[in-house]
Amino acid sequence: MKIIARNLSRETTQAELTALFAEFGLVESCTLVLDKDTGKSKGFGFVEMPKHIEAKTAIKRLNAKKIGGSVIRVKVAEEVAPK
Description:
Blueprint: E1 2-6, H1 14-22, E2 29-34, E3 41-48, H2 52-62, E4 66-67, E5 70-71, E6 73-76
Antiparallel strand pairs: 1-3, 1-6, 2-3, 4-5
């Protein structure tokens, strides 16, 4: 299941984001979205968790939780249809 985490602190690293979700199960991949020009976090990222029950637990427990000074928003990522 692909999950989006928004409103992350700009200081949150990809390793920290991975560790946050790994508390709830296996993290297949984690991508923190970075600004092309500055290389700094844009404040959101995507996490892939293969087991739906673990992913749903992570979403439920992490959504609206204060992490690094920011209240994050976590939900299932919507698939974008190819153009």
